[in-house]
Write a structure and sequence with these properties.
Belongs to the lyase 1 family. Adenylosuccinate lyase subfamily. 59% of the residues lie in helices and 5% in strands. By secondary structure, the chain is mainly alpha-helical.
C-alpha cells in the first residue's frame, strides 16, 4: 500500500489546510510560517533603514530612497522561491532568524553595491532573535485581527443584528431552566447575543500590540557597548512606534512579555464562547420548530432520513469554537510565563496562533451560512404560546401585589393563589379570565388583565431591540 505521506501534491494533515481551507485561506498571509519569515525580513529591513537614517555609526552612509525602495521590494515580492531559499539556509544554520539575516545579506550587493560589506554588518545589529520575532508576531497578529478576523466577525454580528431588527415583534415562549417562562420576542433574544458579541469586538478593536527592541536581556547591553553615546531606548521606541506602528514596551527580559497576547486571546475566546451560546440557542430554536432551515439547503440532511435537515452549520461551529478556545486558552496561560530572562516555550506555542484563529474564523463562516438558511416560523411560536396560558400567572399576581400595597382589599396572598391555579397543570384562556374576573379587581386593571394573552405579554421586548448598536466604535483602520 503506497504511503499517503508521499503523495503529490502533499496531503494536508489538518482540516484547516484540507477541506476547510477556502474559509481560512486569508489567514495564511498573516499567520503562516511563510508569513512569519516574510515579516522577519520586513523587520530586519526596517531596522537596517532605521539605523542608517539615524546616522549612528560614523562613516556609514544613509541608504538612498531608491535603495530603501529596493529593499522593501524584497518584502513585497516575497514568494515561493524565497520561501524555498530561506528553508535551505535554515537547514544549514539550524536557526530560523539567522537564516533571515543571511538571506538579506545575499541581496545587499545587488542593491547597495560596494557598500554591501559594511552595511551588511548593520543587518541584525544589536538584535537578539526575539527582537525580530516579537515585532514580527505583533505585526502578524495585528494584521490577522484587523484585516481578516475582525471584519468577518463584524459582518456576522451585523447579520445577526439585522435578523434581530426584522424579528423584533415576533413573540415567542421563553424557556428558563427548560420550562415555559415569561414570553419575549425572537428579535430581542437575538439582540442579546448581538449586543454581547459587539462588546467583545470593541475590546478586541482597542487592543495594544506591544513590542521591544532591546537586546539579549532587555538591557541594550550590546548596543551601548558598541555605540555608547546613542539614545538606545529612544531609538528603539521610535522604531517600534513610528516605523512599525506598534506600542513600545520599555521593560522586558530577552522576550517581550506577551501579556498583550494573553489579553487579546482572552477577548477572542470570550467572543467565541458567546458565539457558542448563540449556536446552542439557535440549535434549540430549530429543534422546537421556531426556525425552519429552508433557504440555500441543497445538502443531504441525513443519509437515511430524507425529511431531515440537520443544523450542521451550528454544530460544526460549536466544535470549531471549542478547538479554537482550547488553543487560545493555552496560549493565554502559557505565553505570560518565561523562566528567568528567557526560555523557548513561547517559540513553539506561538506557532499555533494561526490554528486558533483559523478555527474561530471557520466557526464564524459556518454561523453566517447557518443564519442565512433560516426562516422564522411564527406559527410554531404562536402555538407554543397558546398552549401555555399559565405564564400569565406572573402578571396577574404582580398586579395584585401592587394593589395590595395600595391597600386594596381582597388582594392577599397573590403569589400563593396563582401558584394554586397554575403550578403543575395547564390552564386555558377561559380558565385565567374566569379567575381574574373573580378577584374583585378595579375595573381598569381587570380589563387590562382579561385582554392579556401569552402572545401580547412581551413587555418592552420589541423596543429593547432598538438599544442594539453594533457600529464598530473605536475600530482601527482596515488597511
Amino acid at each position: 500500500m503506497p504511503s499517503l505521506a508521499d503523495a503529490q501534491p502533499p496531503i494536508a494533515l489538518g482540516a484547516l489546510d484540507g477541506r476547510y481551507r477556502p474559509a481560512v485561506a486569508p489567514l495564511v498571509d498573516h499567520l503562516s510560517e511563510a508569513a512569519l519569515n516574510r515579516q522577519r525580513v520586513n523587520v530586519e529591513i526596517e531596522w537596517l533603514i532605521h539605523l542608517t537614517d539615524a546616522q549612528l555609526v560614523p562613516d556609514v552612509r544613509r541608504l538612498t530612497p531608491d535603495e530603501q525602495a529596493q529593499l522593501r521590494a524584497v518584502v513585497t515580492d516575497f514568494g515561493t522561491d524565497d520561501i524555498a531559499e530561506l528553508g535551505a539556509i535554515e537547514r544549514e544554520t539550524v536557526h530560523d532568524v539567522k537564516a533571515v539575516e543571511y538571506y538579506l545579506k545575499r541581496r545587499l550587493p545587488a542593491i547597495v553595491g560596494d557598500d554591501a560589506a559594511g552595511l551588511g554588518e548593520l543587518v541584525h545589529f544589536g538584535a537578539t532573535s526575539e527582537d525580530i520575532n516579537n515585532t514580527s508576531y505583533a505585526l502578524m497578529v495585528r494584521g490577522a485581527v484587523e484585516q481578516v478576523w475582525l471584519p468577518r466577525a463584524r459582518a456576522l454580528v451585523e447579520q445577526l443584528a439585522t435578523m434581530a431588527r426584522e424579528l423584533r415583534d415576533v413573540p415567542l415562549l421563553s424557556h428558563t431552566h427548560g420550562q415555559p417562562a415569561t414570553p419575549s420576542t425572537l428579535g430581542k433574544e437575538l439582540a442579546v447575543h448581538a449586543h454581547r458579541l459587539t462588546r467583545q469586538l470593541r475590546r478586541v478593536a482597542r487592543q495594544d500590540y506591544l513590542a521591544k527592541m532591546s537586546g539579549a536581556t532587555g538591557t541594550y547591553g550590546a548596543h551601548v557597548a558598541a555605540l555608547p553615546d546613542a539614545d538606545w531606548p529612544g531609538i528603539a521606541r521610535a522604531f517600534v512606534e513610528e516605523r512599525l506602528g506598534l506600542t513600545w514596551n520599555p521593560l522586558t527580559t530577552q522576550i517581550e512579555s506577551h501579556d498583550w497576547q494573553a489579553e487579546l486571546y482572552a477577548d477572542v475566546a470570550r467572543f467565541n464562547r458567546i458565539l457558542h451560546n448563540l449556536c446552542t440557542d439557535v440549535w434549540s430554536y430549530i429543534s422546537m420548530g421556531y426556525f425552519a432551515q429552508v433557504r440555500g439547503q441543497g445538502t443531504v440532511g441525513s443519509s437515511t432520513m430524507p425529511h431531515k435537515v440537520n443544523p450542521i452549520r451550528f454544530e460544526n461551529a460549536e466544535a470549531n469554537l471549542e478547538v479554537s478556545n482550547a488553543l487560545l486558552d493555552v496560549l493565554a496561560s502559557t505565553l505570560v510565563t518565561s523562566r528567568l530572562q528567557r526560555d523557548l516555550t513561547d517559540s513553539s506555542m506561538q506557532r499555533n496562533i494561526g490554528t486558533a484563529f483559523g478555527h474561530s474564523l471557520l466557526a464564524i463562516d459556518n454561523v453566517s451560512r447557518g443564519l442565512d438558511g433560516l426562516d422564522a416560523v411564527p406559527a410554531a411560536m404562536a402555538a407554543d404560546l397558546e398552549a401555555n396560558w399559565e405564564v400569565l400567572g406572573e402578571p396577574v399576581q404582580s398586579a395584585m401585589r401592587a394593589l395590595a400595597a395600595q391597600g386594596v382589599p381582597g388582594m392577599d396572598q397573590p403569589y400563593e393563589r396563582l401558584k394554586e391555579l397554575t403550578r403543575g397543570r395547564r390552564i386555558t384562556g377561559d380558565d385565567l379570565r374566569e379567575f381574574v374576573r373573580g378577584l374583585g379587581l378595579p375595573a381598569d386593571v381587570e380589563a387590562r388583565l382579561v385582554a392579556l394573552t401569552p402572545q401580547t405579554y412581551v413587555g418592552l421586548a420589541p423596543q429593547l431591540v432598538d438599544h442594539l448598536d453594533v457600529d464598530p466604535v473605536d475600530a482601527p483602520d482596515a488597511g
